[in-house]
Automatic annotation (TrEMBL):
In the C-terminal section; belongs to the HTP reductase family. It comes from the Bacteria. Its EC number is 3.5.4.26, 1.1.1.193. PANTHER family: 2,5-DIAMINO-6-RIBOSYLAMINO-4(3H)-PYRIMIDINONE 5'-PHOSPHATE REDUCTASE, DIHYDROFOLATE REDUCTASE FAMILY PROTEIN (AFU_ORTHOLOGUE AFUA_8G06820). Binds 1 zinc ion. The gene is ribD. This is Riboflavin biosynthesis protein RibD. Converts 2,5-diamino-6-(ribosylamino)-4(3h)-pyrimidinone 5'-phosphate into 5-amino-6-(ribosylamino)-2,4(1h,3h)-pyrimidinedione 5'-phosphate. Residues 3-112 form the CMP/dCMP-type deaminase domain.
Amino acid sequence: MDQRWDAAMTLALNMAGKSPCPDPNPRVGCVIVADERVIGQGWHRGAGTPHAEIEALRQAGDGARGATAVVTLEPCNHTGRTGPCSHALLDAGITRVVIAQPDPNPAASGGEQWLRAHGVEAVTGVLGEKATTLNADWTFSQIHRRPRVCWKYAASLDGRSAAPDGTSQWITGKEARHQVQLGRSRCGAIVIGTGTALADDPRLVVRLPGVPRQPLRVVVGLRDLPADCHLRDDSAPTLHIRSHDPVEVLDQLWHRGIHRVWLEGGPRLAGAFLAADLVDEVIAHLAPMVLGDGRAAVIDPTVTSLSQAHHFVIDDVTRLGPDIQIHAHHE
């Protein structure tokens, strides 16, 4: 395998890692190489800002003529908030483009073919797996035309998320709760049902320092929210989707540019997403206690026998203080 561009692509991936996450746009980095020397580098700073290629070309200046552009994602070939990067690269005199990941977005893809058709050499697949991993949620959403859904729940060893008297704070310890904050910070939206909103009056914000943007708080269900509830404050935006249909919920969020959903709803909302086959990941926090009775972590009336169970593959098991975190993905 030709590895001559690995070092430059590694630098481009490091640039891409500076891009915001989450964001409606993918994380992209670009470096311009001339005579085995990096003369320009850039990354995408978020929706509405210049793309990584444009930033790198500006830094390279006239040196870009005859140079190579190394970019983590196939240059876009459409006009959105900005012009097509494929055209900008050609206009700058770039003669070779090295690409890690092809663009799965049909509205923006085609840059590689357009550049080839205009005499630019294209090298593809350089560190492609690393580039795809960097944009895993965005890539998933482009392919499936909906956000990826991660269902998070906390429960006792016997699968109870609340005691018989309804108390649930706190089943898990501070280490697990900190991990929840980190998980929320990676998502574009936190989703709960009206039942959870009315019973718990949650804030649904990321309580970590330096968070540039709070996720969208989404409440699913028909019941109204009280005017003085926390979800109506100005600490984060809130969207009330008056529906019980998970497909409709995800469609609305997809059209808002959200690529990852953090599902924190109660047992019935979680069951509705499972029944619709719309849970892609599970993060389970299990506390070393047995409640014996109380609210189950999930209620899915579509499962009546073992053969109808929803199956997941365990990716990781981690000790968090006294608790256990299980991370799994859908088969």
